[in-house]
Specification:
Elements: H1 15-19, H2 23-30, H3 33-47, H4 52-65, H5 69-82, H6 87-100, H7 108-120, H8 122-133, H9 138-152, H10 156-166, H11 170-180, H12 190-200, H13 206-210, H14 217-223, H15 229-235, H16 238-242, H17 245-252, H18 259-273, H19 291-302, H20 307-320, H21 327-336
Helix pairs in contact: 2-5, 3-5, 4-5, 4-6, 5-6, 7-8, 7-9, 8-9, 9-10, 9-11, 11-12, 17-18, 18-19, 18-20, 19-20, 19-21
């Protein structure tokens, strides 16, 4: 079902941007007379099911004759309202709309209702999903990959198929990374999501690594039962070097709970500060101004503990070499306390 894209990796944007490509069309349809009428109908249906059968018949007819994709996107609002009373009919209308024009689904409402439909009515949606994945339009293809990744999280056979795609498709890996970061604490699927991320943190394409930056490390720290092997793998990855702030800010809020991994994180950050880089290349660390205080807070916890105290003092020595980063000020503040 899959036609691999010949686009270069650098031609792609972040997944959130690609999935939002329908924004202008969506707004254009909403601001049209027919689009506004569909929105009004959807509001009516949310309020009452009194004329539901007539509206279902009308929508089914309009799907086949509405000429503008921007207006067809507004039909999704009516389909969503119908799902309040008759989910199966709503999914059938959604599939019919996709069969007429896959591009009609490549908007915010299309993403939301399609994901709901895939979760609840997978058998109805699977053929449409595979067709989306084979599309030449990035917005449609990204939505297809997103739906396929949703299916993969709960079906090992689908996951194996999806993995065969992402071996060739940068966009597929981007989407998988994008979906994995929001599932790291999602019960049964968390382990699958984390397994994906362990690959994508080291991906050869930066855009794939960029889409791992939304990992919720507070959730991860609370759910890990692997001795922080997952967190330590991320620390050693190029993804951490490119985007260290999320993990750093999370641990800065939970130092008392996780002092050992906190030490590993600040040590890695300071080591990266010391790396000599080519001209024009920098280590971007937006939380640099907080580093001194975090070090002080860790030291308060490990003071008098032998090996851990020595380790943090060694880290302090490296940190103090970077006076421009407020090291002395942080130390003075500690001495006042």
């Amino acid at each position: 079902h899959i036609v691999t894209s010949q686009m270069r990796a650098e031609d792609y944007m972040r997944v959130s941007d690609i999935l939002g490509h329908g924004g202008d069309l969506d707004m254009s349809g909403l601001n049209s007379d027919r689009g506004a009428a569909y929105l009004a109908i959807s509001n009516y249906v949310w309020f009452t099911s009194e004329r539901l059968s007539n509206i279902v018949e009308f929508v089914s007819k309009q799907i086949g004759i509405e000429p503008l994709v921007s207006v067809r996107m507004q039909i999704l609002n009516v389909i969503g309202a119908i799902s309040k009373y008759d989910q199966e009919t709503a999914v059938e209308l959604l599939v019919k709309l996709g069969e007429v024009d896959l591009g009609s689904l490549a908007c915010r409402a299309g993403v939301n209702i399609s994901r709901w439909a895939v979760f609840n009515y997978t058998s109805y949606m699977s053929a449409l999903v595979y067709e989306m994945c084979a599309s030449d339009e990035d917005g449609v293809k990204a939505l297809g990959f997103l739906l396929l990744s949703d299916m993969s999280l709960s079906d090992a056979d689908v996951e194996n198929y999806f993995r065969s795609i992402w071996a060739q498709e940068v966009l597929a890996r981007q989407v998988a990374a994008f979906n994995a970061v929001v599932n790291v604490g999602a019960g049964a699927v968390a382990k699958i999501a984390m397994a994906w991320l362990l690959e994508f943190y080291f991906d050869s394409v930066k855009l794939v690594r960029d889409d791992t930056a939304g990992t919720d490390w507070l959730v991860v720290f609370d759910s890990l039962d692997d001795g922080f092997a997952f967190a330590k793998a991320y620390l050693s990855s190029p993804a951490f070097e490119e985007s260290p702030d999320g993990m750093f800010r999370a641990i800065s809020e939970r130092i008392e709970d996780f002092p050992d991994i906190a030490i590993c994180i600040v040590e890695r950050v300071i080591n990266l500060l010391e790396v000599v880089r080519p001209e024009g290349e920098t280590f971007r660390f937006g939380s640099l101004h907080e580093l001194g205080q975090v070090l002080i807070n860790i030291y308060r916890l490990v003071e008098g503990t032998g090996a851990r105290e020595k380790q943090i003092l060694d880290i302090f020595d490296s940190y103090l070499a970077h006076e421009s980063y407020g090291a002395r000020e942080a130390l003075v503040e500690f001495e006042r306390i």
